[in-house]
Each structure stands twice: as structure tokens, then as C-alpha cells.
Design goal:
Helix content of chain A: over 70%
Strand content of chain A: under 5%
Number of helices of chain B: 8
Order of helices and strands of chain A: HH
Strand order of the largest sheet of chain B: 1-2-5-4-3
Shape of chain A: flat
Number of strands of chain A: 0
Oligomer: heterodimer
Largest sheet of chain B: 5 strands, mixed
Shape of chain B: globular
Structural class of chain B: alpha+beta
Distance between the termini of chain A: 41 Å
CATH topology of the largest domain in chain B: Beta Polymerase, domain 2
Distance between the termini of chain B: 32 Å
Largest interface: A-B, 20 and 24 residues
CATH class of the largest domain in chain B: Alpha Beta
Structural class of chain A: mainly alpha
Number of strands of chain B: 7
CATH architecture of the largest domain in chain B: 2-Layer Sandwich
Number of domains of chain B: 2
Order of helices and strands of chain B: HEHEHEEEHEEHHHH
Radius of gyration of chain A: 17 Å
Chain lengths: 53, 168
């Protein structure tokens, strides 16, 4: 089963990844460091717990 | 991270390691979009292969006041995980590393074709996903990749990956 809408979304995502891939390495490392901060915040968030202790 | 790269380069100059190349998520980030990773993975060829190939690195690190954190060393504020080359493919990847520049500092990085090959060889879900992303990028020389995969018996792994439905 193929969905044209889904295909369009996937294409946009691929295009976005390719754009990001072209960024200077220095900029990419800045983004990695930001991603680390975001991930750390998510880990700290008690609402994230998916299983009762 | 530039000071971290300088320190690793210095280890090579001082003969603490024979050669190195950045691998893992940071190497992938060099070629594709930024990926979440927590340390700088460094494959290295030890000067003296043996039982404790990490010992000279840790000795150097202690001398510099770098601390250990889990399986990494914090070098100039950045966690670095040193991994001795553990098979012929990884050794070849280090020997044939490319040069990257980060804020004016040069470092060695595993070439995209070797990253794909190592990811296919390792075969975890995240490695296969990384291999797919690299293959989808414009950074992989398919002819070079085919030669590497042939040499290391990994052609079937690539065929299997490419036979799977595309990722979203």
C-alpha cells in the first residue's frame, strides 16, 4: 500500500537530512551538543517514566 | 573539541598510539546530518599490541589531569572512548583514514566507505540505520565500498540491507 502524502513527507525528510549533511562540521558539532542537552533534559523529566517503579 | 583533537594528535606525535581515526557518531556526523552521540569514539593502533593496550593512553591522561568517566576519558572537557583496532577491517579503516579540520585543527576520521563497512559488520540496529543513512548520502564512493566489502566478506550484508524497505 502506497500513500502519496506519506511519500511526500518522507521525501521532505530526506531532503532536510541532505541539507543538514552539507553544513560545516563545526556547525554540526554545535547541533550534536544541543541534541545532548535536549536528551539530558528528557532523561531528567519524571513524566518520561513509562513504567511504574 | 579542538583542544581534544590536539591532545589526540599529540598522543600520536609522542608515540603513545601508532595511528588513530575518529569513528562512531562523530565520524558519521562529519558525513551526514548531525546524530546524537555522547562521546568521541577513537579507533587506534597500539604501539605495542598486548594485554593492556589502553595503559599508555591512561598514563598520558593521568599526567595531564584528564579524568575517567565510565568507559571514556574526559579530554579537554570532551568524553573520548579509545578502542584498539579489533579486526582487519577496523585496522584498515585507521590506516586509510581521511583528514578533517575542526576550527583550524586537523584530525583523522574514518572514511565514509569504511564507516558503512564497519556498521554492516557490527550489525546492530543502530549500525544498520547509520549504514543506510550514509548510503543515502552523497559521501559514499560505491566503487570503493564494493572493494572493501568484497575484501572483508560483507557483500551479502549490503545486499540484505538494500533489499529491506526504505526508512522513513
Amino acid at each position: 500500500m502506497k500513500s502519496n502524502s506519506a511519500e511526500a513527507v518522507f521525501k521532505k525528510k530526506r531532503d532536510r537530512r541532505r541539507q543538514l549533511a552539507k553544513l560545516p562540521f563545526e556547525k554540526k558539532i554545535e547541533i550534536v551538543l544541543e541534541l545532548q542537552k535536549v536528551a539530558a533534559e528528557i532523561r531528567k523529566d519524571p513524566a518520561r517514566r513509562i513504567r511504574p517503579k | 573539541m579542538e583542544k581534544t583533537l590536539k591532545a589526540i594528535e599529540e598522543m600520536t606525535r609522542l608515540g603513545i598510539i601508532r595511528a588513530y581515526a575518529i569513528g562512531g557518531g562523530i565520524a558519521a556526523t562529519y558525513y551526514i546530518e548531525p546524530v546524537l552521540t555522547y562521546d568521541l569514539g577513537v579507533f587506534f593502533i597500539p604501539v605495542k599490541p598486548g594485554l593492556d593496550e589502553l595503559a599508555p593512553i591512561y598514563e598520558f591522561a593521568r599526567g595531564r589531569g584528564y579524568v575517567e568517566q565510565a568507559e571514556a576519558l574526559i579530554i579537554e572537557g570532551f568524553p573520548v572512548q579509545f578502542i584498539p583496532v579489533f579486526n582487519d577491517l577496523v585496522r584498515e579503516a585507521v590506516v586509510n583514514a581521511a583528514t578533517l579540520t575542526y576550527r583550524g585543527v586537523e584530525g583523522k576520521v574514518v572514511k565514509a566507505e569504511y564507516l558503512v563497512a564497519i556498521a554492516l559488520q557490527t550489525g546492530r540496529t543502530k549500525d544498520r540505520e547509520r549504514a543506510a543513512r550514509l548510503l543515502d548520502s552523497e559521501s559514499v564512493d560505491r566503487t570503493e565500498l564494493a572493494k572493501i566489502l568484497e575484501r572483508h566478506g560483507l557483500v551479502d550484508r549490503l545486499n540484505q540491507l538494500e533489499g529491506e524497505p526504505g526508512e522513513e
